[in-house]
Amino acid sequence: MAVTPEQKPETSAILDAVRRAARQEQFLEVVTPEEAQRRFAARIDFAPLGAETLPLGMSLGRVLAADVIAPVDAPPFDRSNVDGFAVRAADTAGARDGAPKRLSLNAEVIACAVDPAIAVEPDTATAIATGGVIPRGADAVVMIEQTELLEDEATPAIDLRRAAASGQFISYAGSDIARGETLLRQGTAISSREIGMLAACGFAAIAVVRRPRVAVLSTGDELVEPGQPLRPGGVYDSNGAILAAAITEAGGEPVPFGAFPDDEMALEAVMRSALRACDIVVLSGGTSKGAGDLSHRIVSRLGKPGILVHGVALKPGKPLCLAAIGDKPLIVLPGFPTSAIFTFHEFVAPLIRARAGRSSEAAKTVTARVPVRIASELGREEFVLVSLIAGDNGLIACPNNKGSGAVTAFSQADGFLAIDALAGALDAGSAAEVTLIGDAVRAPDLVIMGSHDIALDVVVGALGEFHARTIAVGSQGGVQAASRGECDIAPVHLVDPATGIYNKHLVAPGLALVPGWRRMQGFVFRAGDARFAGMSANAALKAALADLSVLMVNRNAGSGTRVLVDGLLQGARPSGYANQPRSHNAVAAAIAQNRADWGVAIEPVARMYGLSFLPIAPEHYDFLLVEAHRERPAVRAFLTALRDETVRTRIRALGMEPY
Ligand code: AMP
Ligand code: MG
Q1: Contacts for 508 with CB less than 8 Å, ≥ 6 apart
Q2: What separation in Å is there between the alpha carbon of 219 and the centre of ligand 2?
Q3: Measuring from atom 16 of ligand 1, which residue has the nearest CA?
Q4: 516-531: average pLDDT
Q5: Atom of ligand 1 at shortest distance to CA of 336?
Q6: Of 72, 169, 299, 544, which shows the fewest CB atoms inside 10 Å?
């Protein structure tokens, strides 16, 4: 297709973008993740940055830049550990109940901070408090409880009924920290414990490794800063926030530059100033084919040596670009949130940790079984985010199939497993090594897998200290997980097409049905749409089918709502029928945003989107219970919560009718 001069400018701009997109594959020279790491490490300095001195109170979480040698002893003097009397141990020899030993008291009381003036001569003792300085001559302390005070004598004295060993109840100078010893080693992360040790030695400030300053930039015409209203077609810049936080977690100092439109000149200018101001520059977005690989083009102009890697054989994360401008690393992450954070953790976090002087984190792994077959693309190492749950025969790794555009995929996962570039799939039942993300796995007390509903959050919220994990896999996925015993409870809303009855047909040996609540489904349309306003659901449906300009939005096969829709349509196939999103929310959003005119969804969701609603029939949202798990405390707590009057009132407030 040639662009003729007569064509409208917009058309030729679109064609340009399409051509650039087609060319992008040529720019990509896809290398293995190992090769990418090797090229990056060959050009980029991973050594810790220099030192800076910080007040002790600000050093928490930082890394010591040098060994710390103790400048003083702790304790700084021989110190009493109890309230009692400082004595010469030899004077107490042979003291017992029948034959107490009498010592006269010196005219001094050694409270804390008192510098003793009187030596303990033979057969004398000096009163001393916990923390007091052991006076000259004394070599032991006896506890006040083991003495008897004789105040009536001419000179005050004490009787001892027990002999003291030399050194008893004394902490000697330097026994805790000895002057000249290496107190803390370079590279130690400073926690409250280290701060305590440093303070005990009198440090008010300490030399720590400087944190790498990491510029965070996002690009995309669609990006909206959080806090601003979302415009049509806009999405919030989530990468900027998650990357800034992940940089802090890795020991860096994020420098947020914000989100920029896909404007080459403007973006190039900010990237140059980011390179001047920071040690590392991280940009996300502008990488997919539609963008014509904007970011890569800009990076290729910024300076030498330039792009080291563009394209890595991993999924998610293929369009990753690693570059060096002078000695500064510049990394372009894919825009899709899961891809961005994944490649950040693989390629950027280790660099930040190293430059911040932190020891590299040994990855923690566990072995788990995969419950279902996971397909994978040949020729790319594929990473699959998984949730870990405790099965009857060890850990089970449930794949999270939200896709790389999902923001929640990474945060809701416990870890990830890798499928080899040469493998086409991981078979159901096979064991896989799962690399944990963040802290060790805390196995949930209750696993709920199936269809999600906002009222479910109310029940889960009433479980007290029980830790529940809900994994949204849809009703069908829930039925399968329950039949394999992988969850405790599966929320479902599936209608039996033969009888029109909800959920009863799902009961099988080992599974019980626990009634949940009903959600009214109805004909949903934009408020004020004169074509349907004021009608019954039936009349509105007739009107919709009669008008060829009306567009519907359907639901996915297998959903209860789809069965209802097909029943209503009785074989009719109005335009929009092929548009089959997977949730009530997606149906409501399509109508609210004018991408469709009507659909069937539940009332609370229709209300949330400000849509009008004409009731048709209730949908039954119930729970399949794995009988073998019924007596587990968290399962019992869930069943109790379902019957709880406060919980039921709150469910009603959301527009559901509990049984
Ligand atoms: P791109 O790499 O710019 O082509 O973006 C790929 C996808 O990621 C698009 O759906 C973008 O809307 C999305 N995306 C890019 N940058 C961000 C961001 N900072 N926050 C959230 N989503 C983003
Ligand atoms: Mg973009």
Answers
A1: 483
A2: 6
A3: 335
A4: 96
A5: 8
A6: 72
Least Cα distance to 190 among 217, 170, 169, 209 occurs for: 209
Taking alpha carbons only, the member of 444, 421, 429, 487 closest to residue 623 is 487
Q: Give mean pLDDT, residues 529-533.
A: 95
Q: Could you read off the pLDDT of 175-206 as tens digits, one per residue?
A: 888 899 999 999 999 999 999 999 999 999 99
Q: What is the DSSP letter of 7?
A: S
How many angstroms separate the CA atoms of 444 and 467, rounded? 5
Ligand 1 centroid, distance to 328 Cα (angstroms): 24
Question: 511-529 burial string, b = 16+ CB within 10 Å, else e?
Answer: bebbebbbbbbbbbbbeee
431: three-class secondary structure by DSSP: strand
Cβ-proximal residues to 380 (8 Å cutoff; 6+ apart), any chain: 313, 314, 315, 318, 421
Q: Mind listing the pLDDT tens digit for each residue in 622-651?
A: 999 999 999 999 999 999 999 999 999 999
* Distance from residue 320's CA to the centre of ligand 1 (Å): 13
Q: What is the per-residue DSSP string for 498-543?
A: TT--BSGGG--TTEEEEEEEEEEEEEEEETT-TTTTT--HHHHHHH
For residues 418 and 338, give the distance between their C-alpha atoms in angstroms, rounded to a whole number: 15
458 confidence band (pLDDT: 50, 70, 90): very high
pLDDT tens digits, 424-437: 889 999 999 988 87
Q: Whose C-alpha lies nearest to ligand 1, atom 17?
A: 335
What's the 287 CA to ligand 2 centre distance in angstroms? 7
Instruction: Annotate 447-483 with b (16+ C-beta within 10 A) or e (fewer).
Output: bbbbbbbbbbebbbebbeebebbbbbbbbbbbbbbbb
CA nearest ligand 1 atom 14, residue = 335
Residues in contact with ligand 1 (CB, 6 Å cut-off): 218, 220, 222-223, 235, 237-240, 284-288, 290-291, 334-337, 405
Highest mean pLDDT among 160-164, 358-362, 373-377: 160-164
From ligand 2's centre to the CA of 294, what distance in Å? 9
Helix axes 645-653, 633-643, angle to 10 degrees: 60
The closest-lying atom of ligand 1 relative to the alpha carbon of residue 288 is 4
Q: Which atom of ligand 1 is nearest to the CA of 262?
A: 3
Instruction: Give the position, in ligand 1's atom list, of the atom nearest the Cα of 287.
Output: 2
Q: Are residues 78 and 133 in contact, defined by beta-carbon separation less than 8 angstroms?
A: yes
Q: Which phi and psi (to 5°) does residue 88 adopt?
A: -95, 120
Which one of the ligands is nearest to 221 CA? 2
Sign of CA dihedral 472, 473, 477, 480: negative
Pocket test of ligand 1: the residue of 336, 410, 411 to mutate, having most ligand atoms within 8 Å of its CB, is: 336
CA of 220 to the centre of ligand 1 (A): 6
Q: Looking at residue 122, what is its pLDDT?
A: 97
Amino acid at 180: G
* pLDDT over 70 (residue 23): no
Of 237, 196, 202, 204, whose CA–CA distance to 76 is shortest?
202
- Of the residues 282, 288, 321, which should be mutated to test ligand 1's pocket, given the most ligand atoms within 8 Å of the CB? 288
Q: pTM for this one?
A: 0.80
118: Cβ contacts below 8 Å, ≥ 6 apart: 106, 107, 108, 126, 135
Residues 344 and 246 sit within 8 Å (Cβ to Cβ): yes
Q: Are 54 and 206 in contact (CB under 8 A)?
A: yes
| Centre of ligand 1 from the C-alpha of residue 600, in Å | 30
